[in-house]
Specification:
binds manganese (II) ion, globular, mainly beta, six-stranded antiparallel beta sheet
Length: about 200
Amino acid sequence: MSNNSTSAYNWANGFTIDFSLATGMSKKGKSTTRHLSQMKTMYYDTAAADTILQAGDVLVYEFYELGAPDNAGDLAFGTSITYPGKVGDEYFMTKGHFHTILETAEVYYTLSGRGIMLTESPGGDVVAHELTPGCAVYVPQRYAHRSINTGDTPLVTFFVFRGDAGHDYGTIETKGYRKLVVEQNGKPTLVDNPKWSDA
Ligand code: MN
């Protein structure tokens, strides 16, 4: 994730990068991909996930990062692309994570598509922010965050946060989110996650 020695970018003196949606990034390097098989237990309807997987392991999301130095004073940034789709009535989403340094905020700016940034504090405060092109979302310190595509085109966001924050995926993988976003009567709706565990 963070590696001073292999970075192609001039973090010490500054640099310019083509950020024309995903295409500018894809010329620069490989994305990190997440297919359904890598996160099927995060969806509440695992039978629906299995049905999809029988036909093929679909790409749910991918992101490009630049390998920012692991320093508090540097900024990690990149693009995240969550594809449209559903597992049962639950929209395609990212795994979601806390930052390893929990006191780390992050900004997401929506370039295209439509969705929800679902945020949740360790104590259970749940806030759903709309992701709309041209709008930025401020994810505060201590909140887990997950992008959810509620539209029918790729949801593309630009993100930036401090370089040494790190990612904690394990807490969400183990406990899940308290809330899910599902389609009800054609609309995104926040519901309790039947699989959430406080264990
Ligand atoms: Mn983050």
